[in-house]
Specification:
This protein is about 30% helix and about 15% strand. The chain has about 240 residues and is an alpha/beta fold. The longest helix is centred in the C-terminal third of the chain and has 14 residues. The radius of gyration is 16 Å and the shape is globular.
């Protein structure tokens, strides 16, 4: 099975939130971590589009001045994944789009310039090599409008008990001063693995809120328990 082509996008969750499909996952404990680079199932715009723009003509649309302040930024990977098999959309991607739909937020997917391998073992090896060498994998889009947002929902899989190194590439390229950051992750059976604290140390000047951890296999099923967990978390971090 070949990897679905992917592209970086910033787009309204209202336009694409309903397209979320299957999952990808990497565990925190040694040996259970996998790589995760997302294959988005939806074709999306490469430019920033607010939810109000995509819902033009809708009486329920909120002003763009409100909606444009929030963005869901995530990294995810499809292909062969730990505990869930071969999938078409990463589990972090699915959780990200669910969150974006609930908060009516824009979405930006972190896509690597060099696609991660389709196979689990190959991706696992590359992710470990990047971690050991303290690498900063290149990202295909710089997201120049990042400064326009004051609230960032930041999503990622757990790889080798930590953030994927490509997340450090993104985080270190941005000014986080004055922003609210809401971390969320997908994992094998590990929880956040302290990544929320790692993000707090990296996002200088930001107000980093409590993190959310969703098991990848649960995200794949996307049952009522996952939906409830997201709603409960949002109620806390948005209060």
């Amino acid at each position: 099975m070949s990897m679905i082509s992917r592209r970086t996008f910033v787009s309204s969750a209202a336009a694409i939130g309903a397209t979320a499909g299957a999952i990808a996952l990497a565990g925190c404990s040694g040996g259970s971590s996998s790589g995760s680079a997302s294959a988005s199932s939806a074709s999306a715009s490469a430019s920033v589009e607010t939810a109000s723009q995509s819902q033009s003509g809708s009486a329920s649309s909120q002003p763009a001045t409100d909606l444009s302040k929030s963005v869901v930024v995530f990294f995810s990977r499809a292909g062969e994944n730990y505990d869930v098999g071969v999938i078409d959309e990463g589990n972090t991607s699915i959780v990200a789009h669910s969150i974006a739909g609930k908060v009516v937020s824009d979405v930006f997917e972190i896509v690597p310039e060099e696609e991660y391998p389709f196979g689990y073992d190959d991706c696992y090896a590359r992710a470990k090599s990047e971690q050991n060498s303290n690498a900063r994998p290149a990202i295909s889009d710089t997201f120049d409008s990042f400064d326009d947002y004051d609230t960032v929902y930041l999503g990622y899989p757990i790889w080798h008990s930590d953030l994927p190194m490509i997340m450090l590439t993104f985080i270190e390229s941005k000014d986080w001063t004055g922003k609210k950051v809401m971390p969320f992750c997908t994992h094998g059976d590990s929880g956040l693995c302290g990544t929320d604290q790692h993000i707090k140390s990296l996002c200088k000047g930001a107000d980093v809120k409590e993190g959310l951890a969703i098991k990848g296999s649960d995200a794949q099923a996307f049952g009522m328990d996952v939906d409830k967990a997201i709603n409960t978390w949002l109620a806390k971090v948005r209060s």
